[in-house]
Amino acid sequence: MHVLETCESILHGLSFLALAALRQVSRYHKLRRRLVQILALIVVLWSTADVILVRRHLNEEQTRLDYKPPERQRIFIASIIRNNERSLPEGWNEAVVGLADVFGSDNIFVSVCETGSSDNTKNSLRELDKALETNRIGRRIISSVTEPQNAASRDHESGHLPYIPQLRNKCLEPLYDLRGAGLFFDRILFLSDIAFTTEDVLSLLGTNYGTYTAACSFNPLNFPAYNDPFALRDADGYEPVMQKWPFFRSSRSRDDMKSMLPVRVKSCWDGMVFMATEAFYSTSPIQFRGVPDGLAEAHLEASECCLIHADNVLSGRRGVYLNPFVRVGYDTATSLATHSDNSWLTTWEIIESIWENRVRRWFTFPNLTRWPLRRKFSGWESQDEHHKERGDFCLINELQPTET
Predict the structure, then answer these.
(1) Does 52 fall in a domain?
(2) Which of 114, 230, 326, 355 has the most CB atoms lying inside 10 A of its own CB?
(3) In a domain, 295, yes or no
(4) Which residues form a coiled coil (predicted)?
(5) Which DSSP string do the residues of 328-362 spell out, in sequence order?
């Protein structure tokens, strides 16, 4: 009898424990469901707040200039052209000549270097030369610039042409020639074969109320690969974490882009770039260059368009900015698409892109990714005390895929 009572007591105890366990499991599942619901609510509220804030900034009127340039503002326009027959007749010549209506024909100078074109680009440039002459605009247009014989000697897997720095410097030669004649310029406009308007140029000129060392336009529909993807570095010196809005890893650059403010970056280059001339006129003038041969031999390369900012001591004082309101493209259709009622960024794209950006930032580690590059760079530095490179943040490892 005592045995039965003991067994019954054990069974009751086990039943109680089983019921208690089931209650705990039920509570756990309820708790888990509650946590999932809370997390889902947080994501929804967070995403809603993101959309509201971004949409508000997108819909706000840009601080418009009256399109009257500062008094006695002189602009030096530099452009490298190659195989651009299709884009040049699409209004590029007319847009360049039209800048004289705003700045005055005496206040602009156009320097164009054409090299290696196999299409009808040279004829288009002859037409530009005639139009500039008719409007009494200073110019130097050089066709068939000879490419260096060793142009391919350092052209590894990046696809970046190593002689381009020489061409850019050649385009700037009249800047110094005219200085000898007593003519100085306030800004240099580096201009690619893009579809642009006078308003685009003046909006870029007025970036950050005119206080900057360099200001770049951008193309949000094909960013940043369509121009020089190796030239863009965010405010912390990192490459873009993704190739669509809001692009950046750095909180400063990312927040500026989401707020549609001039975006603080360490380096940028695009279809239009304004740069102040002080560093070009200094006693030790900056110029476009590539990386030292020792780094190139280790398959470390950098864009001259990034290194020019690294070499410019004024970059850290006045800042380098990407202007999100100056959106340009290589053809009229793309340019119009970026200006039409903010259609380049839909509500769903805002939600998707912001969360993709967060996930990429949370689960990628750029310092770990760049460790092979840093190891090569440190090895090069240790070889000689004179081995220095100010543009270390511009470096890319040609043997390693990029993060984006």
Answers:
(1) no
(2) 326
(3) yes
(4) none
(5) -BSSHHHHHHHHSTTTTS-HHHHHHHHHHHHHHHH
CA 271 to mean position of chain CA atoms: 10
Tell me which residue has tokens 């007591």: 9
Indicate the number of domains in the chain. Answer: 1
Q: CATH number, domain at 122? A: 3.90.550
Each of the 404 residues of the chain gets a pLDDT tens digit; together they read 555 455 556 545 545 555 565 566 566 666 677 777 788 888 888 888 888 888 887 776 444 444 455 556 899 999 988 766 555 646 888 999 999 988 999 999 999 988 766 667 778 888 899 999 999 999 999 886 655 555 444 444 444 556 789 999 999 999 999 999 999 999 999 998 888 889 899 999 999 989 999 999 987 666 554 445 689 999 999 999 998 889 999 999 999 999 889 999 999 998 899 999 999 999 999 999 999 999 999 999 999 999 999 999 999 999 999 998 888 877 665 566 556 555 567 888 899 999 999 999 999 999 888 999 999 999 999 998 888 999 999 999 987 665 55
Domain containing 283 equals 75-372
User: Looking at the domain assignment, is residue 105 inside a domain?
Assistant: yes
| C-alpha–C-alpha distance, residues 307 and 23, integer Å | 65
What residues contact 241, with CB distance under 8 A and at least 6 apart? 247, 248, 249, 357, 360, 361, 364, 403, 404
**How does DSSP classify residue 195?**
B
**105: CB partners within 8 A, 6+ apart:** 135, 136, 137
Distances from the Cα of 402 to the Cαs of 18, 257, 366, in angstroms? 55, 22, 10
CA–CA distance, 328 with 271 (Å, rounded to integer): 7
Cis peptide bond prior to 89, omega within 30° of 0: no
- Integer Cα distance of 107 and 170 in angstroms: 21
Q: Which of 306, 220, 315 has its CA nearest to residue 258? A: 220
